[in-house]
Amino acid sequence: MCGIAGVYRFDGEEACRRALREMVAQLRHRGPDASGVAVDGPVGLGHARLSIIDLDLGRQPMHNRDRSLALTFNGEIFNYVELRETLQGRGHWFQTRSDTEVILHAYEEYGEQCVDHFNGQWAFAIWDKRRRRLFLSRDRFGIRPLFYTHTGSKFLFASEIKSLFTHADVLRAIDPQGLNQLFTFWSTLPPRTVFRGIRELPPGHNMSVEGNQIQTRPYWKLEYAPDTEKRSVDDWAQQLLELLADATRLRLRSDVPVGAYLSGGLDSSVTTALVKRCTNNHLRTFSVTFGNAEFDESEYQNQVVRFLETDHQAVRCVGDTIARIFPEVIRHTEKPVLRTAPAPLFILSKLVHDEGFKVVLTGEGADEMLGGYDIFKEAKVRRFCAAQPDSAFRALLLQKLYPYMPNIQAQSLAYRKAFFRVRTEDLSNPFFSHLPRWELTSRLKRFFSREVRAELEGHDAYADVLAMLPEGYCDWSPLCQAQFLETAILMPGYILSSQGDRMTLAHGVEGRFPFLDHRVAELAARIPPRLKMKALNEKYILKRAARKLVPPEVLRRTKQPYRAPDAESFFDYHSQSVRGDYVAELLSANRIRDDGVFHPEAVDNLVKKARRGKVIGIKDNMALVGILSTQLLIDQFVDKRQRAGAPLATAAEAEGGPQSATPYEAAI
Predict the structure, then answer these.
(1) What pTM value is reported for the model?
(2) d(Cα 243, Cα 615) in Å, to the nearest integer?
(3) DSSP alpha helices (H): ranges in 251-405?
């Protein structure tokens, strides 16, 4: 895993090597082992390397034999061995054992359609000297990041936004539209980010920069078309297990040791068991535990460790741990977060790094692909209740939701019906499954300043999602619709980014995800919804497939999503004091007023409430974390002259440079 950066000059001037090196220097945490730049006239490519495959010869930027192509690549092509054999059969000659060189030869052979042949996770850029074209691509699920911007004379791209900010002519200002999306969906919707003029290449998309034209095109999408064949449960389970085993086998390809994350839940336990089965070797596993029993899963972690006989190590998150590291966490997320959950994963990746590991396999993607999230169960119960909203019997099912959240469980039946939006008129809404979550999160925008709210006047964040819905979406089953929304929005924008890539690569650790092998995802999209969630039994088909892989206790346990302490991480309720000088400073009325994003009096009231230990609800916890993380983002990245309290940048300043907008971008 690595960091990439580059420039394409529209004016034909030669790319500056010094500027490229400055961009790469901002990515050294992603690739601490080596770095390099290559310049060919107006195009420059930069690279920071984390050496995992072909440690000696895999250096980048890499050229083909006649130097007509140059590549900078972040990620892994897991089926590179098979692709290499195919390409050799077509007359290609290789100089290295790296997957990087396979990309170059695949591009020579297949052109831009080379990505259709890749099984992996990637963000890369190829300079095609003959065609005078810069070609960029991002993997199907957006596991690896790729950002870009353009000024009057330059197109710039990089793995992280901080690399783009090394250029003085790149605007460093908050985009209220991006905040509007994030404070609704927990994430921005690509290509928008929370910074004005900074764009993100959407997952499953290619981009080309040629002359003064920028074009973006999708190359893959996940179609939810449940199979109508009369197949048995065991047939589906067997095929799923075989594909998962092969996906795991491919993701164990490495010239450095590979470990696994083990949370104690079903997904990570299955992944760990498959790694153990594939290698039959000594396996190192890693986890995070909590001093607060509400969040701790160490009991289940230890059960799996004993069952699979792994060499396990955990890092403990207690007291002020989160407050102490939170500024560094936000420096890496490069966007606000509404929960502190990324922070413990930050210290977990440091443990992995300190133990000498560069690669870990994890269970991310299983919930999205196979119907595991509570929001899917919630939507099914809500839909059942909304069909007969006056039925007290049906409404009792709401008590089965979120047993690990006592604040909701303690509320009256009427409150729960209102909270979960049990309304018949919502049944036809294309966002039915996510309405309670998005509505709750949208309430946080009441903390926005008058200036920000004025700029957002008339903008409907839901319209942005509506533009993303694929043809045929309304014909899918309710579960498949909900899966699409999770997979297209929360997974790439938060799970794989703020909790994933940014936390592992902060310490030079690469995460790999067998459940996000595109073959597994395409199979899961064909599995009938009734087998993914049988009644209210989530991930039923995975449990069926994993019967002999994991302890029975893991199969039987109720789903407990990964969470971490929120407001209490920053406030000592016993002494009514703030943990961390930066918290008091950034949430002070003067600072809130100066930065201009939030309303000073509203934030002050929230802080007073937190000091007294009265921030106990979901909304207040998310508000406090969201406001604090936004303030940290402004403090670390935003030019003081471009803070929301100052005159906002014009659209021309934010969007300078030539551009050819795609329908996808135009919708934003």
Answers:
(1) 0.94
(2) 45
(3) 266-279, 298-308, 321-333, 342-354, 366-370, 374-387, 392-395
Q: Which amino acid is at 80?
A: Y
Look up tokens 């000594």; give the residue.
282
pLDDT at 409: 65
Query: Is the model's pLDDT at 202 over the cut of 90?
Result: yes
Question: Rounded to an integer, what distance in angstroms lies between the CA atom of residue 558 and that of residue 538?
Answer: 9
Q: Is residue 2 annotated as part of the catalytic site, yes or no?
A: yes
Under 8 Å between Cβ of 51 and 33: yes
The catalytic position among 2, 114, 385, 480 is 2
Contact 361, 245 (CB under 8 A): no
Q: Report H helices in 362-494.
A: 366-370, 374-387, 392-395, 406-409, 413-419, 435-442, 450-455, 461-466, 478-485
**DSSP character string of 507-532:** GT-EEE-GGG-HHHHHHHHHS-HHHH
- Domains of the chain as residue ranges with CATH: 2-218 (3.60.20.10), 233-370+490-556 (3.40.50.620), 374-440+457-486 (no CATH), 567-637 (no CATH)
> Over the stretch 393-436, which tens digit does the pLDDT of each residue have?
787 788 778 777 776 766 777 777 777 888 899 999 999 999 99
HEC sequence for 539-583: CHHHHHHCCCCCCHHHHHCCCCCCCCCCHHHCEECCCCEECCHHH
Name the DSSP class of 33.
S
Distance of CA 422 to CAs 56, 227, 397, 402, Å? 60, 31, 12, 16
Cα 137 to Cα 120: distance, rounded to the nearest angstrom: 12
pLDDT for the residue numbered 410: 67
Round to whole Å and give the CA distance between 305 and 314. Answer: 11
Token readout for 292 is 């607060």
pLDDT of res. 643: 61
Q: What is the number of other CB atoms lying within 10 angstroms of the CB of residue 81? A: 13
The tokens for 54 are 């072909």
Which residues, in sequence order, are bridge partners of residue 168?
Answer: none
Mean per-residue pLDDT of the chain: 92
Q: For 609, what's the count of Cα atoms within 13 Å in the CB-facing half-sphere? A: 16
Half-sphere exposure of 365 (CA within 13 A, CB side): 28
Token reading at 93: 């000659």
Q: What average pLDDT does range 284-304 have in this prediction?
A: 94
Torsion of CA 352, 353, 356, 362, to 10 degrees: 40
Sequence-separated (6 or more) residues with CB below 8 Å from residue 144: 1, 74, 75, 121, 122, 123, 138, 159, 501
**Residue 68 has what pLDDT?**
97
Task: Using the predicted structure, report yes or no on whether residue 652 has a pLDDT greater than 60.
Answer: no
**Tens-digit pLDDT profile for residues 66-83:** 999 999 999 999 999 999
Measured torsion, CA atoms of residues 137, 141, 142, 144, in degrees rounded to the nearest 10 = -80
